[in-house]
Design brief:
The protein has helices at about 10-15, 50, 60-70, 85-95, 105-125, 145-150, 155, 175-180, 205-215, 240-245, 270, 290-300, 305-330, 355-360, 385-405; strands spanning about 25-30, 35, 40-45, 100-105, 130-135, 165-170, 185-190, 195, 200, 220-225, 250, 265, 330-335, 340-345, 365, 370, 375. With about 400 residues, the protein is α/β, with parallel strands linked by helices. The longest helix is centred in the last third of the chain and has 25 residues, at about 305-330. The structure holds pyridoxal-5'-phosphate (PLP).
């Protein structure tokens, strides 16, 4: 592509809406868990595009699926169905509790569909009074107006005028706080099995089971937002499978496309029947390119070998982080599961996650934060041991830099 202007970070400030503040470097290509910027500087990727690049960059199975579909058919809209969407839906249904799938383009859209479905199901079955949605403080469900409202962070939902009503927030991992809010007017409880953006906080098993029981007692739907935890990231295809607690609706995105935008909502026949023709939709939902890539993602990840590899990689990550901590004493604990881990900063470094994240970038490592106190790692599920160990050496150098500054 020829241009008569410089494509650099300064151009971002010139032409982009200022809702993001991207780093100063611009990556141009990636392979596996390595990424190179415009100056050919190489980075090890422990961020995975925020838990998205589930098979790393340019995985051959995904490149092949995309190229093959690119030569066949790109788009139809939902006036017609298409083969990749049907194949992907069948594979998701066969692999989970669900009978039916709705395709969207992102996590927020999958959740928007889930919340609308829960409301419509409750209206149809019980009447107008059954509207209340209970979710949790610190939860994150996306940036549409309904999803920020259900999310538990006022900083994301305030300042845009009147919010959708009948949404209340309980304390995560505190069943009594849910009991204090729930009634027969509750239509759904929405929860992340591991709170991602909120700080990599795993739900306690008895908490999720308690939510399941409360939903059953009050004829409410249990919605699991597995946008961040889904598609093998915790060592099972979906995190609910670790807990043995089955939701009524599950949302998935991020890792599902391995970098190609797609989201999906999964549910049972009985609940799905309430999204009748015309009640909801999206031009791009079920797009053939996206579904072809996601099918390759599911085929590749949903195997005993790859899921076992996720847990082996977790062990290596934990051992390396423990070693870093032995040297520099910066964490109180490492939380999370599989390739979704959060190193929690101790009292001395509380509030300084961003300093570690920036130092990591200086040393050629892409990491993430989850709030001010947690350094988050969400790399490719199939990252090699060599990349983990080399990335951890860079991380140790970054930690040393912050600690000794
Ligand atoms: C749990 C959870 N739900 C929903 C979303 C929103 O997904 P998207 O950014 O694809 O809309 C995110 C994104 O971080 C998430 O972590």
């Amino acid at each position: 592509m020829t241009t008569n202007f410089a494509v650099n970070r300064a151009l971002f400030d010139e032409v982009m809406v200022p809702n993001y503040a991207p780093a100063s470097v611009i990556p141009v290509r990636g392979q596996g868990s390595r990424v190179w910027d415009q100056n050919e500087r190489e980075y090890i990727d422990f961020a995975g595009g925020i838990a998205v690049s589930s098979l790393g960059h340019c995985h051959p199975a995904l490149v092949n699926a995309l190229k093959q579909q690119a030569d066949k058919l790109w788009h139809l809209s939902n006036v017609l169905t298409n083969e990749p969407a049907l194949r992907l839906a069948k594979k998701l249904v066969d692999a989970t509790f669900a009978d039916k799938v709705y395709f969207a383009n992102s996590g927020a859209e999958a959740n928007e569909a889930a919340f609308k479905l829960a409301r419509r199901w409750a209206l149809d079955k019980f009447g107008e009074q059954k509207q209340q949605i209970i979710s949790f403080s610190k939860s994150f469900h996306g940036r549409t107006f309904f999803t920020v409202t259900v999310g538990g962070q006022a900083s994301y939902s305030d300042g845009f005028g009147p919010k959708p009503g009948a949404v209340q927030h309980a304390e995560f991992n505190n069943l009594d706080s849910v009991k204090a809010l729930i009634s027969n007017n509750t239509c759904a409880i929405v929860v992340e099995p591991i709170q991602g953006e909120g700080g990599i906080i795993p739900a306690q098993p008895e908490f999720l089971q308690g939510l399941r029981d409360l939903c059953d007692q009050h004829n409410a739907l249990l919605v699991f937002d597995e946008v961040q935890t889904g598609v093998g990231r915790t060592g099972k295809l979906y995190a609910y499978m670790n807990y043995g607690v089955t939701p009524d609706i599950l949302t998935t995105a991020k890792s599902l496309g391995g970098g190609f935008p797609i989201g999906a909502m999964l549910t049972s026949n009985a609940i799905a029947s309430h999204l009748k023709v015309g009640t909801h939709g999206s031009t791009y939902g079920g797009n053939p390119l996206a579904c072809a890539v996601a099918e390759a993602v599911i085929d590749t990840i949903n195997t005993p070998d790859i899921l076992a590899e996720v847990l082996r990689n977790e062990q290596i990550f934990r051992e390396c982080l423990q070693e870093v901590n032995r040297q520099y004493q910066v964490f109180t604990e490492v939380r999370g599961q599989g390739m979704l881990l959060g190193a929690v900063l101790n009292e001395k470094y509380r509030g300084r996650a961003r300093d570690f994240f920036l130092a990591a970038a200086d040393h050629g490592l892409m990491a993430l934060v989850a709030g001010p106190d947690v350094i988050r790692f969400a790399p490719s599920l199939v990252i090699t041991e060599q990349d983990i160990r080399e990335g951890m050496q860079r991380f140790a150098a970054a930690v040393k830099q912050v600690v000794e500054a």
